[in-house]
Structures are given as C-alpha cells and as structure tokens.
Amino acid sequence: MDSDVRFWVAHRIAPRLYYGWVILAVVFVANLSAFSLNPVFGLFITPLEQEFGWERGTIAFGLTFGTVIGAAMAPALGFMIDRLGTRMPMVLFALGAALCYALLSLVERAWQFNVLIGVALALTLFGVGQMMGSININRWFVRRRGRAMGIAMMGASGGALTFIPFCTVLIDKVGWRQSFMVMGGAALVLIVLPAFFLMINLPEQLGLAGHGELRGPADAPGTGAVGEGAWTLREAARTRAFWLILSGIMVGNFAVQGYFVHAIPHMEALGFPRLLASMVWSSFFLTGMLAKFLWGFAIERIGVRWGLVLLFSAESVGMYLLMTARTPGALFFYAVFNGMGHGPFLQLMAMVWAEYFGRRSFGRIYGVVQPAIVIAGSLGPWFAGYVYDSQGSYARFFQLGIGLCLVAVCLFLLAPPPMARRAPVGGEVPA
C-alpha cells in the first residue's frame, strides 16, 4: 500500500517537475534532524559535567564510539543501498535513533550515555545524513549536482541553526534529559514520515533514465567522471587520486571534527558566557547555511578539487581566529568567516567520490571509504578533550588542527581526477 501511495504521488508530480527536487526536499528535511546532534553536543557537556562529575574526554567518547559504529557499518550499508535503495533504511535508522534519544533521558552511568549517544549518532549523522542523503542526491542529480548538494546540506546547517538556540533554552528550562526526548521526536517527524511516503530510490523507477539532469558535460572542470561514469570500486582503488583524496579528507576531518565538538566549551573556557557562545555558534551555522547554496554554484564551475583546496585553507584560518579570539567581536568575525569557508564541507565530502568516479557504484565506493574517514574524524573530539583535560586549554589541539588542514590542502593539490570512463548499459534498480 505504501508503495502504491508514493508511486501514485510521484507519477503525478514527475510530468510537471523533475522528481529529483522532491527527493531533494526529503533529504533537506531529514538533514535538519540527522545532523543536529553533533553541533548541539557541546551544549550538553557542561550540564553532564556538573551533574555527574564526568571529565570532558569521557563525555566526548560517546561521539568516538558512534563514529566507530558508523565506520563499521558503512561498507555493508553502501553495498546494500546500491542493491536495495535507501528508503526503508532511512525509516528504520530514524526509528532506532528516536529510541536511543528516549533512553538517554534515563541514563545514570557514563557507559550508558556513551553507548546511546554513539548509536544515535551512527544511525542519524552517518547513516541517514552522510550515507543515505548523499547517495540519494548523487543518484538523482548530475548536471546540477553542486547546487542540489548545497541545498541538501543547507538542511544540515538549518538543523544546527534551529536546534542550538532551541536546546540552549530547553536545557535551561527543563533539563538535558527532556531535551533528548524532544530530539527523538524530531527524528520521527523529520525523517520517518517524509522518507516513508515520498522516497523513490532511483530515477529509472519513474522512467527518467534519459532525463537531461542525468547527463553532464564530459569536460566539466575539475572532474574526471561525470554523468554515468562507470568506475568500479576495484578500479577506483587502483588510482593514485583515490588514495590522495582519502588521505586529505582523513587528516582534515580529524582537525575539523575535533574542534567542532568543543567549540562551545572552548568559548566558555575563555570566559565567555554560555548564551554568547551559543549565539556565536548559531551565527556560524546561519552563515554556513547561506554559504552552502552559493558554494553549490561555485563548485559546478571550479570543480570539487579546487573546492576542497579552498575549504581546508579556510578551515585553517578559521581555527586560528577561534583560537586567538578574546572579544565578542572577534568571535562573531570568526563565525562569519569560517561559516562561509566551512559551508561546502559536507557536500564536498560526498561529491568528490561521485565526481571522480561516477554515480553507478557510488554507494559501494562511498561506503568503503567511510571507515577511514569516520574513524579519523572520531579521534578528533576525543583527542581535543584529552588535550583539555591534561593541559586545561585547547590551544595545542588548535595548533595541530591548523597544520593538518594545510597538509590536506597539499594532498588535494597533488590529486587531479582520473580519466573519465563510460558507463555500461543497464544496472540494478532497487525498489
């Protein structure tokens, strides 16, 4: 019955509007919830520290645990999505995350907190957001992939922009336990319902295989495989570009994720009040949300390789600005500057694999690289917490992060895309 409903809706929309835009809307709304935990996590650190006396490294370990789970499931999830699609996994993952949020309101031990936070993070951020959302957009868009990914990832910033001030007030009024309950309800409304009633896995299911959106110019700047480029996982892994890009993303992700989780506690450690820190962090995401849309058009022109170079150059400057900020004005300058620079982070992390190696095996390739990327990113928050616990300051971590972002820039400069390949006729069409 549910398939009849969604195909009935799709067949009435498709003649008037490319259905990829409906898929984009589903992903955008899902991302509001899927990406919300990571940026708001810092708001929970101080209340947990005050109630239980846990160290910040202990609290942040839950994110590390979640990224390990996300890394472990990514390869199998990528293969499964290429064969079966994303719709039901999105629904099931969101239901699981909602249950974890509900149970978080009952925790009394650090291990309970870390396990539940880890599972919730793996199911939403890594499962629904980074894997399923990115795969959907890269399957439905080629010619306008940059702007489509930009709009989809505006949902990630929009979720942070919504949940940061909301949870700031909510934690203050009703406590951190009830705040987790609300986040669970958001997962049900924003992910489960749209995915269940509107998600279609492939354009081919609606007879759109020859649609102009799925064809891209072979000489698109900065790309090696556009449109229906047909690199297999094995072939992609044999290229020099594959390993250089993977290495660059790993070291850059370690630095960015490490400071990202601890940005609000860092501002509090500098002596700024929590409300000001929350306003600065919200400004960061507001700027980033607007920047994602503009970056989408820019990436279509300059290509993902140069987008990555500019992204991590800006990240290094942004970390320096946050590390050295000592006035509210300096904090807001950081928020605007790095919000603009950080804008394309999420879309580029996904687009680079589709742009370099095509969309036919995108799920497999994207799933296989995720363990290395996710584990590298997971170590960042833990190591930043360890640095603070041992030195009483995040300064050493910021210095390391700046250096790693510059290393990433050098690796991307050494990684031109491989030659494009033709796609074979046919392929699997998940239901």
Mean pLDDT: 84
What's the structural domain tally? Answer: 1
CATH topology: Growth Hormone, Chain: A
Q: Spell the H/E element sequence.
A: HHHHHHHHHHHHHHHHH
Assign the CATH class: Mainly Alpha
Radius of gyration from CA coordinates: 21 Å
Task: Return the structural class.
Answer: mainly alpha
Distance between the termini: 14 Å
What is the H level of CATH, i.e. the homologous superfamily? MFS general substrate transporter like domains
- Count of helix runs: 17
Strand tally is 0
- Low-confidence spans: pLDDT under 50, at least 5 residues? 217-228, 423-431
The main pleated sheet reads as: none
Q: Level of helix content?
A: over 70%
Provide the CATH architecture: Up-down Bundle
**Relative strand content:** under 5%
**Shape, principal axes of CA atoms:** globular
